[in-house]
């Protein structure tokens, strides 16, 4: 009986850290998916609108909603930060990183970075058309916008791009502190981009929260795909040749 139990445990227990991380990633993805579904349902039913409006008004001068709270430099900084999540900046970032990887002989990884980022654009466009939520009208916008509001494209796509690059950087880094630094920077930039959208009045808080959750979910999927492909002989050979070109 004990031998049968041990055999069963051996089959269901992850064999190494890689399998354990993959399993935990799958569980986290399911939890994020449930959170996104719940949030989307609340938004569609209008349950979050009162909170969204109060939050935006709390960031503006009560006497003049066109004026955001804080010094003038904060508004200027928010405009600069929000550009880090624009299609132009993200596109240039992905192109530069992918070009570097391809020139280093890691063309599979370079193409993967472009595929992950490009797929995020598609996911964002599909969801915006699906929900058709209009932009906030409770406060004047401090930035020109043209697309639908839910989810925040800046938050979603920046999460996918920066977190994917952060995960790849962690794979290259050797020291644990450096790995932590890479992901911390990716999360910080993603958070600042989303926060800037709310401060500028172009998104409801729930738009940004949904963008973060969906972006994190998609980045997690991309990470699991990269981990799966990375086990292949061709990917391992590509990495070893890039690390030791001689």
Provide structural commentary.
This protein is an all-alpha fold and 246 residues long. The protein has one domain. The chain has 10 helices and 2 strands. A hairpin with a 2-residue loop joins strand 1 and strand 2. Helix 2 packs antiparallel against helix 9, helix 4 crosses helix 8 and helix 7 packs parallel to helix 9. The protein starts with a helix and ends with a helix.
Give the biggest sheet.
Answer: 2 strands, antiparallel
Oligomer: single chain
Rg over C-alpha atoms, rounded to the nearest angstrom = 21 Å
Amino-to-carboxy terminus distance: 55 Å
The tally of helices reads 10
Secondary structure tally: strands: 2
Strand content: under 5%
Topology:
Blueprint: H1 2-12, H2 17-44, H3 49-58, E1 60-61, E2 64-68, H4 72-82, H5 87-103, H6 107-131, H7 153-172, H8 176-199, H9 205-230, H10 233-243
Helix pairs in contact: 2-9, 4-8, 5-6, 6-7, 6-9, 7-8, 7-9, 8-9
Give a quick set of tags describing it.
mainly alpha; 10 helices; 74% helix; globular
Q: What does this entry show, briefly?
A:
With 246 residues, the chain is mainly α.
């Amino acid at each position: 009986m004990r031998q049968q139990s041990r055999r069963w445990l051996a089959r269901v227990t992850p064999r190494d850290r890689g399998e354990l991380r993959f399993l935990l990633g799958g569980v986290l993805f399911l939890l994020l998916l449930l959170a996104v579904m719940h949030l989307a349902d609340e938004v569609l039913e209008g349950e979050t609108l009162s909170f969204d409006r109060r939050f935006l008004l709390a960031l503006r001068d009560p006497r003049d909603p066109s004026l955001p709270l804080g010094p003038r430099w904060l508004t200027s900084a928010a405009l600069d930060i929000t550009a880090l999540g624009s299609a132009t900046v993200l596109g240039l970032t992905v192109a530069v990183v992918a070009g570097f990887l391809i020139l280093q002989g890691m063309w599979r990884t370079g193409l993967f970075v472009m595929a992950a980022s490009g797929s995020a654009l598609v996911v964002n466009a599909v969801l915006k058309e699906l929900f058709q939520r209009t932009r906030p009208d409770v406060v004047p916008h401090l930035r020109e916008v043209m697309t639908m509001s839910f989810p925040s494209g800046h938050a979603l796509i920046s999460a996918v791009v920066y977190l994917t690059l952060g995960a790849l950087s962690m794979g290259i880094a050797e020291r644990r502190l450096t790995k932590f630094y890479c992901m911390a920077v990716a999360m910080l930039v993603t958070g600042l981009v989303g926060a800037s959208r709310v401060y500028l009045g172009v998104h409801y808080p729930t738009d940004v929260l949904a963008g973060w959750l969906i972006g994190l979910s998609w980045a997690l999927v991309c990470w699991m795909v990269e981990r799966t492909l990375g086990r292949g002989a061709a990917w391992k050979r590509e990495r070893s040749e890039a690390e030791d070109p001689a």
